Known about the structure:
Number of helices: 27
Amino acid sequence: MEEGRDYTPEEFEAMFASQEGSNRNEEVEQGEEEEEADGSKPSGKVSYVWKYYEKVPVPNKPRHFRCVCTVCRDIKKIMKSYAWSIGTGFGSMSRHLRNDHGITASGVGSQTQTQLSGFMSEQAGGGKPFFYSQKNMIDHMATFVNLEELPFTYGESVNLENFNRLALQPSYSHVNRHTLKDRTMEQYKEQKKELIAYFANFDGRVALTSDTWTSKQNNPFMCVTVHWIDNDFFLQKRIIAFDIMEEKHTGYNIYLRLKKTLDKFNLTKKLFSISFDNASANTKCIDYVLQMDDILLNGDLVHVRCCAHIINLSAQEGLAFLAPLLEPIKTCINWTRNARSMKTQWKTLCDKHGLRNKQWGTDCATRWNSTYKLIKQALRYKNVLTEFYNSHQRDEDAMIDNSMWTIAANVCNLLKPYYNATNVFSLVYEPNVHLVILECLKIVIAFKTAENVEPCLIPIVDDMKTKWVKYFTSFPYIYGVASLLDPCVKQIGLTNSLLFYYEMLNIIDFDVEIYVQKCIDVLRELCKIYAKDKGESSSSSSVTTKSARFDDQLHSILFRRTQSSSSSTSTLATKELDDYLTHGVDTNDTDFNILLWWKARSIQFPLLSKIARDVLVVPASTVASESAFSAGGRVLDDKRSRLAPPTVKMCVCKRDWDLAKIRRQGAKEFDPLEADEIVATDASSGN
Length: 687
């Protein structure tokens, strides 16, 4: 037997077709009566290997064949072939079946399983033999272990080996931790190479988010996440750097790290923006980024501050003053949680009011969103909590009443837009930069509402408002440009929302018309930069219809008539932009998808749709990078604290890339409380 030779499926088909059918059939029949290897007479049995090999006669050599593995062909791999002649043995062919496909002659302990399940039917036509491969199993185990953030020693588990052998595959063999780690690293390098090649051919621009983090082992890491919208208008995200940064965290050193990462992934000339938190070193880093080539519009759109960070600063400003107002409700909840001897009575009361038996948790004193969610849950149980708690209090002054619940409900209504905005700014697969101004508007409306309905909240709101206007007195142009590219907002919605926003904050020295016109000018300059082949755009009259995305209050704010709304577009040099802005709001879809809207109109607005892809990808927060630190913390847990930095980078990046394939980055369990509505009047009425 000669050494095996590899064939591609195409090479095999060509070779197989070159033989005359009658000659091949004759030789195959003759081969079935071959002599045994020791020269004895045939036993009447045909070797099992012929179930998995195709004999191809060798020209001009009677009784000689190339035997091609049909298992390799079926699973679309490079096919092994072996030289064989009648009267010789099958050692090489049987070893190939055993080692590469797990197929043996014995039915006991065989690695061949017939799968008739729906899964197999969908994947391979149904009822087709499934061939177990140890190598294939290791590949998938490496992916699974990393996705589930398990240690590499998982494959060495005796219990896992016993389970697989007894319940799934008798030929399963444990996987050494070094083998598993090496295979994971190989997969990571392969995926990284594919990602670099993809960006080399990518014709759009990308947005970055970056942040730094120190692990439990006191190792400083820097994370860089890239965001882009692909040609099918799907928003994509990948972690492309998770490196240890031992040098001082200065603006220049951060810039050098970013530049190195951009160069490595072919993104240096494709940068649109960078989202940072408010650290001074990050601000200094932007000064160096602006000196790079191919930065658009002198960097007017490059620096994006993390909105979630600003929201947190404002909410934390009022948290210390809100705590005394919520103390009676928290005391009631804590007492109820600790009243273990009265669980039956509590359950009976819950059943009486048609509520499930609630087990109360604790809030974190330094996290406003934890307090918000706890009070929100308590408002659903206010009647049960009041009856249960007051029935065991002898001192009337210690009891809770409706006035306390009213304050709690008004506090919750004050924090609700903060909580909703944080969730919006944390979206992974949906754009959020065009929603920043609208979410900020909702927050300042909540300021005014809280001052009107609850006098005790006025000083607290003043402190929160002071912190708020420190960062959001003037919006970066990227937010205005993105709002213009929202077909449900456009120029009239942006103008009116800003007018109402500054009215609520009592800011009278900000010229909204100048800001909006500057955003239009920026968009016009982008049109000139992106313009290569100007397409014809059909203009239409301005029609504003009510969008189901906004409630009545917000809609009345956005689409009030203003003196400048009808004339500001007349000076635009770009007809495509002029046609778009004058078209007005033309959607009434509650499930409005801005990316699909632009995709559907990429022919009508070829330039603007390309600009929209690059603008709408800008993330409003650095949550993407901060979530990577959570993953890094799980990777570097107490049991794996000695992992080397390159291994940590491999685990974090590869896990993110594998989750991206199934669009599960940032996935979390559904919180039913997010659908609840809190109305202060309900608390006061006791309903």
